[in-house]
Amino acid sequence: MKHYLKNATVVNEGALFPAGIFIVDERIAAVCRYDDASGMEREKACIADSDSVIDLQGKYVAPGIIDAHVHFREPGATHKACIATESAAAALGGVTSYMDMPNNNPPAVSREVLERKAEIAARDSVVNYSFYIGATADNLQEVLACDFSKVCGVKVFMGSSTGNLLLDDDAALTRLFAECPALIAVHSEDNGLIAKNLEAAKACFGDDIPFREHPNIRSSAACLLATSKAVLLAEKYGARLHVLHVSTAEEAELLADVKPDARNISAETCVQYLFFCNKDYDELGPLMKCNPAIKSHRDMLALRKAVRSGVIDNISTDHAPHLMDEKVKPYLQSASGIPLVQYSLPMMLDLADRGCFSLPLVVDRMAHAPARLYDIKDRGFIREGYYADLVVFTSGRRHAVAPAASRCGWTPVSRLSGSVVHTIANGTFVVRDGKLTGCKSAMPLSFR
């Protein structure tokens, strides 16, 4: 099919400009800029050759969002989420590619499990996909044998979380950093300090720990201690380190100090750490419990600053669905994780409307940066010859959010000012006018 998107305001590579976009089959065939006389002439030819023309007057077009950090729960926990439902939720949020974490059951720590996940995604996924391999104390050879043109990276849990793939063997961690040729994505929290903080909370509150204590238990110090350790290993061995879900001002300060001299180190934060802070625990309680914890207002402001400065490279979700009855329990029994893949772009657009970020910066951190960091082939930018992965959105009018498409069925957000209108993956409309079309066009991501 040939589609022409006319009268769009394109947000791409640091700029906003009026243009039309010609899609032929899976790729972008032409970008016709209206501030260029030749672009207007090209548009006439593109329209004449199109099967459909879509007028996007008053709407923005950006590269599809690349969420480099999701937990779609398949295999092993499909009662709460699966690749089919969560990729549909992703599409509704303007996400055209995702990278899924390995803490499944069985865990994705071998080629066999990775291949099984890829088979499920090829059958069920609405949008493009890739999968991390998990690192354990005894699977280094399995990791080194991976084809990293197809596998997005290696996930290391330096702090325990859902799925319990904790790697706390210092010798194994050192070997991984010394020998792994691929991106090492690290969940960095110090388990020993968290355990100590938890015992202190139990001594104070018994079993009735208030949720506002979560950032004191999974503390800033626990994050900084583990992140510092990962940075030292990356500096010593030259490993390609990507620090996941940075949640503290102190980590941002550490990264600001080391990154100018360490091009092998990059960092992610997640939308929840930019949108919420500890003041929200009294209202949301278990619904905002996640690991690492959402921390103080000071941390939130510091992370926003780090996103603007480039200390933090990309923004993901750590989309982690649990059923409501798994969440709404006393603190010690409440599952950690927030389902946000459907709402991350609208949340960032809401923050942009409040003056926290510019639209080009949002697009850079959510689409361009993941493509650069992971070296994804032909995606993440609106360029001729690239795959036609696009999101069409509006911004500026606050509204009730659409119902959650995730199998878990809930979200902690209620009203936002950004809205996804269309999502196009590989030239196919997977969302049109805010509704799933039923079409699937998913491809596995390829890495250079």
Question: What does this protein look like?
Answer:
It is a single chain. Helix content is 33%, strand content 23%. It has 448 residues and is α/β, with parallel strands linked by helices. The chain folds into two domains: 2-62 and 385-436, Urease, subunit C, domain 1; 65-373, Alpha-Beta Barrel (TIM Barrel). Strands 1, 2, 3, 4, 5, 15, 16, 17 and 18 form a nine-stranded mixed sheet that branches. Strands 9-10-11-12-13-14 form a six-stranded parallel sheet. A three-stranded parallel sheet has the order 6-7-8. The longest helix is centred in the middle third of the chain and has 18 residues, at 220-237. It is globular. It starts with a strand and ends in a 12-residue tail after the last strand. The model has no long low-confidence stretch (mean pLDDT 97).
DSSP helix fraction: 25-40%
User: What is the CATH H-level superfamily of the largest domain?
Assistant: Metal-dependent hydrolases
Uncertain stretches: none
Q: And the CATH topology of the largest domain?
A: TIM Barrel
Q: Give the count of structural domains.
A: 2
Main β sheet profile: 9 strands, mixed
- Helix/strand class: alpha/beta
CA radius of gyration: 21 Å
Overall average pLDDT: 97
CATH class of the largest domain: Alpha Beta
CATH architecture of the largest domain: Alpha-Beta Barrel
Q: Rough shape? A: globular
Strand residue content: 15-25%
Distance between the termini: 28 Å
The number of helical runs is 15
Number of strands: 18
